[in-house]
Design goal:
The complex is a heterodimer of chains A (302) and B (275). Chain A has 302 residues and is mainly α. Chain A is 74% helix and 3% strand. Chain A is extended. Chain B has a single domain, classed as Orthogonal Bundle (MetI-like fold), CATH 1.10.3720. Chain B has helices spanning 2-27, 45-52, 54-87, 94-106, 109-126, 135-158, 163-171, 176-205, 208-213, 221-229, 235-272.
């Protein structure tokens, strides 16, 4: 009898934990997994004019059920110059921004990790504060600084460094600035976490053994901080490659990137299949670096 | 010594870089002229215009409502997800669950928006709910985005949780539910609070996903800001931005100092204890 009660009790506990798992699991399947499959499905549908602006994959004719996959969009994507250009631009801008974030973020993270332990949280807070204010407004703020009669041009002319305003806004330069500005904390934070665990005794040992500071950095600090560098670069590169807001607000018409391509295809051209195709390609281009980095990272650890 | 001077210089340059745009934004919200570069005099007229602008006020209310519901839902779901990942035995589909939870962290928002719109489009024709362009559609979308962030924060805190505490409580006669609410939840409270705030901010801030699944019926604040920013600088937006910046920074700074004081008094208490 007692056995039976415990069995019932266990069953109940099990069903409770199933319910607990089921709630977030179902949520993620409905709102995350199914949407990805829908994008995949619509990317191989034929686009038509109307609502919805795509054809069904299954066609019932002559008593047979036909499944029709239309890969034309994928062909267009790889043949059309415009999309190749968008892909190139996205990769180029994201790479430059990631590199600049690394160059700027490394000394900052290093310096913060070497200050007194009680001041470290405050210095980090100052880096993170802007991140909590609106992203859109932080990008918008740069218009006032970079535009033709903006603050920077104004000061440069006042100082007689230039005669005519520089074209700072509406090009790759302003987009890169915007990206570095918005994503710098994403680089500093993982680097700081990594560098603060670093044992300074290692540096002393290297110096005692006759290493120059520069050589010590290259031989000891840099290799040891590699996991932080990888984490920071992934965290910056990934949002940059799918970025829409920054190129749209700070860029010019020639800065056509993948995020903008999806937006235009969807909202302006109402070509849902094409937008989905670009989205699938973007996913592939994101998953690729992550898996490579993961492989490389795990290989390095073993 | 030389390297630390270089580090200090780069830190200061970084702070200048981070804060100049925000300061200029706030400064020119008080400028009486529409021109950004020329200071023509102190004026509060853009703030006055802002408070008379019913469109902006409505959008703010919509955004606040969506953000509050999103933050609450995402905190509950995200915390459960973190507990499942860390404390539950392996079950079938656990790997998929872990991948799904972390996916929104890396997925570009444009793709999330597109996918969710396609989902809502299909749901609308099958069961008629949630309709595209309503607050509930945006809330569902934002909650999905935020779960991952809450999960990551709670996960980080939960790693250091000592399970023997739960066992001890149950040995002393607490039922599992009671042990959970009396021990686990208080332990997780700081993570839950920061998760709630992060979700709130993410939802208040999101333009892209809201633009896909939102519509004229539910216009959030970022959607409205975006449509006016596209036409260049508008001092009213500067005024709005200044209010947001001061509000957020004020809350964060106060929170930081309260946290530090609490920490310090805790340290003082433990150090005064007899060894």
């Amino acid at each position: 009898m007692k056995k039976l009660i415990t069995a019932i009790h266990n069953k109940l506990a099990q069903s409770k934990s199933r319910l607990l798992i089921g709630l977030p699991y179902m949520w993620l399947i409905i709102f995350l997994l199914i949407p990805i499959f829908l994008i995949l499905k619509i990317s191989v549908s034929e686009s038509v004019l109307g609502i919805p602006p795509y054809k069904n994959l299954t066609i019932w004719s002559d008593a047979t059920l036909n499944l029709v996959f239309d890969f034309e969009n994928y062909l267009i994507l790889f043949q059309d110059k415009l999309y190749r250009f968008a892909l190139g631009q996205s990769i180029k801008l994201a790479s430059i921004a990631t590199f600049l974030c690394l160059i700027a973020g490394y000394p900052i993270a290093y310096f913060i990790s070497r200050t007194k332990e009680s001041t470290q949280p405050f210095l980090l807070l100052l880096i993170l504060l802007p991140f909590w204010t609106s992203f859109l407004l932080r990008v918008y703020a740069w218009i006032g600084l970079l535009s033709k009669n903006g603050l920077i041009n104004h000061f440069l002319i006042k100082l007689h460094l230039i005669n005519d305003p520089l074209p700072l806004l509406g090009n790759s330069f302003s987009i890169t600035i915007g990206m570095v500005y918005c994503y710098l904390p994403f680089m500093v934070l993982p680097l700081y976490t990594n560098l603060s665990k670093f044992d300074p005794a290692l540096l002393e040992a290297a110096a005692d053994l006759g290493c120059t500071p520069w050589k010590t950095f290259l031989k000891i600090t840099l290799p040891l901080s590699l996991p932080g560098i990888i984490a920071g670069c992934t965290l910056v590169f990934i949002p940059c490659i799918g970025e829409f807001v920054i190129p749209e607000i700070l860029g010019g018409p020639e800065n056509f990137v993948l995020g903008k391509a999806i937006w235009t295809e969807f909202f302006s051209n109402r070509d849902w299949p094409m937008a989905s195709t670009i989205a699938i390609c973007l996913i592939i281009f994101m998953v690729l670096p992550i898996t490579i980095v993961k492989k490389f990272h795990h290989g390095g650890q073993v | 010594m030389k390297s630390s001077r270089f580090g200090l210089a780069s830190l200061i340059i970084c702070y200048v870089f981070l804060y100049t745009p925000l300061i200029s934004l706030v400064m020119f919200s008080f400028n009486s002229s529409k021109q950004v570069i020329f200071w023509t005099g102190f004026s509060m007229k853009w703030y006055k215009a802002l408070f008379m602008n019913s469109e902006i006020l409505n959008a703010t209310l919509t955004s606040l409502e969506i953000a509050a519901i999103t933050a609450t839902g995402a905190t509950i779901l995200g915390a459960i997800s973190a507990i499942i990942i860390l404390k539950f035995k392996k079950f079938r589909g656990k790997n998929l669950f872990e991948v799904l939870v972390s996916l929104p962290l890396i997925m570009p928002e444009v793709i999330m928006g597109l996918g969710l719109l396609l989902l809502f489009f299909n749901l609308e024709s099958w069961i008629g709910w949630p309709r595209i362009g309503t607050k509930s559609a945006i809330t569902f979308a934002h909650t999905t985005l935020s779960i991952s962030y809450v999960c990551a924060i709670v996960h980080a805190q939960l790693v250091s949780f000592d399970e023997t505490l739960l066992e001890a409580a149950m040995d002393l006669g607490a039922r599992p539910i009671k042990a959970f609410f009396q021990i686990m939840i208080p332990f997780l409270t700081p993570a839950l609070i920061s998760g709630w705030f992060l979700s709130f901010v993410l939802s208040m801030d999101d333009l892209i996903v809201a633009s896909f699944v939102g519509g004229p019926e539910a216009t959030t604040l970022p959607m409205l800001i975006y449509s006016s920013v596209k036409f260049g600088i508008t001092p009213q937006i500067n005024a709005l931005a200044s209010l947001i910046i001061l509000f957020v920074m004020g809350i964060l700074t106060v929170g930081y100092f309260l946290h530090m004081r609490q920490k310090r008094s805790l340290e003082a208490m433990t150090s005064s204890l007899p060894q």
